[in-house]
Amino acid sequence: MLGFVDGTTTDIRTAAGRGQGPSLAHPFLDPKLPSTNRALARIWLTTYRRIAADPSLYAEILRTYAMPRSGEGSPRVLLARYFRDADAYLNDLLLLVPPSFASQMRVLPETRRTNDMLRLLAATFEGPDPRSRFEAQRKLYLAKLLFDVDHCRSVRDGPRHRARFEKLLEERLWRDVDGGGRSVEVCCRFEETAGGEQSFRFGVPPDRGATCWRFQVRRLAAKNGDPEIEIYHYRSRFKREANPEPGRPARNGFLTLTEKPRWPALGRRSGSIVSKMLRRGIADPQVVEDLLGAMFIVGDRRQAYALENRLLHVLGGPLRWRDRVDTLAGEKDRPRMDPRSSSGFRVLKGIVEVLTEDEAGASPYFFGVEVQIFPLEAYLRTLHARHFASHYAYKRRQFLLDLLPLLFPSEIYGKETSHLAAESR
User: Fold this and answer.
1) In the structure, what pLDDT confidence band is assigned to residue 10 with cuts at 50, 70 and 90?
2) 405 and 381 together in one domain
């Protein structure tokens, strides 16, 4: 199955709530908030007491928070949907841990039943035990993030931006493709010794023990001194719509190369963006840089650089590109990778800023697309769940090492959360 691999860490910046670190950007996930940030806790406690005593003030706050204009629906009904989504998001995350552990971490029934801001605030300040208080606090904040993602301009316009990017490629890149493509079979064999040593053989015969893929390969003719480029696969993705899952064998023995939603319980599928915000210490969804992505799989490393040159030419030149990361050439850029990525992760990537018209008629503006270019062998390594470069293992490390301690802190859920994180290192 083909998926996008997120392997670049965000630079440390303080603007717009970005790069502050999870504990600073998301203080409402701190189980010790009353002692670590007394001023903020005092503001919330004062607000809770006032809206509990004055229903009209509560109604006014809700409407201003959730409704741009008066007289259009019920803000309580609208927000209840996001509180339920917060529970669904946590349920999906717990699919990544053993069932025995997940059963202990599931949202408490009383928290799950509570889908009103005032009642959740009451549980936060007056709950009978630390866990019930923390779960109410966490639910309030996760619902807030999910609401913010749904109402973020860059997220809302994501499909339109994706269509604009695809049109540019159609007009300026794919016009140079030779023919309709040919079917190519590629087989690999992964082996692991009892001592943990791994080997990955690429281009082996399709015999027993081999895993095979079939591609429709398109070719871009040699141009401007660059070699011919074999495009084994291309797809763009909008982060809110799909995320990678492990490939599954089809009836013909080949793995299916597709994507489907990672967050099946979330109708609006904002979970992937929320996870990125939590892990990276981002408080504002507008500054999530990889909402849009484009992935190319080419024949080899030389073709990867040739495609980079071609894309530079068709997408505005080098001044429109930034944050280039190259782990195909060596380890120089390795420190710029996400610390959870594998040392075997090989990619050429960068962010291109694409100019588009404003539908409101104002001046044009930019949106970013993260472009990833993989040599075929490097990408196929990420599809093997047991390989050290496995994308599935990478995502699981992100959850166990970054999200688990934040959303299920050991102070509330016990030391087993720390043990799970330690085992994934």
Assistant:
1) very low
2) yes
Whether residue 21 is contained in a domain is answered as no
Instruction: Say yes or no: 115 and 181 in one domain.
Output: no
Q: At what angle do helices 130-150 and 117-126 cross, to 10 degrees?
A: 150
**8 belongs to a structural domain:** no
Please write the tens of the pLDDT for every residue from 361-380. 778 999 999 999 999 988 88
Shared-domain flag, residues 158 and 146: no
In the chain, how many domains are there? 2
Q: Is the pLDDT of residue 416 over 80?
A: no
Query: Same structural domain for residues 255 and 351?
Result: yes
Residue 425 lies in a domain: no
Query: Do residues 323 and 355 both lie within one domain?
Result: yes
Same domain, 175 and 55: no
Q: Which range is least confidently modeled, 102-111, 336-345, 354-363, 385-394?
A: 385-394
Asked if the structure places residue 25 within a domain, the reply is: no
Range of the domain at 344: 154-420
